[in-house]
Amino acid sequence: MLSIRPQSLSESLTKLEEEGMIRRERSETDKREVNVFITDAGRACCEDIHRRHESHAAEFFSPLTEEEKKTLGELLSKLVNSHDGCSDR
Model's pTM, two decimal places? Predict the structure, then answer.
């Protein structure tokens, strides 16, 4: 589960809502529940961030050969898998 205080989450959602990235709606069946939806502007922003991330990643890893990238991926996976289930995160 995410380790985010409810107040911090609410503040983050309020900011995203003010920027037009999301919209919130109360559930019709349970008024305690709030559904969060991404807007078209939010989706476009996410797509832009994804494109820029891909471009930066390609540039960052460009000195490596395909074989080196594969080896790096395998080594990183091994490290991550060996630490699955750590409770101090």
Answer: 0.67
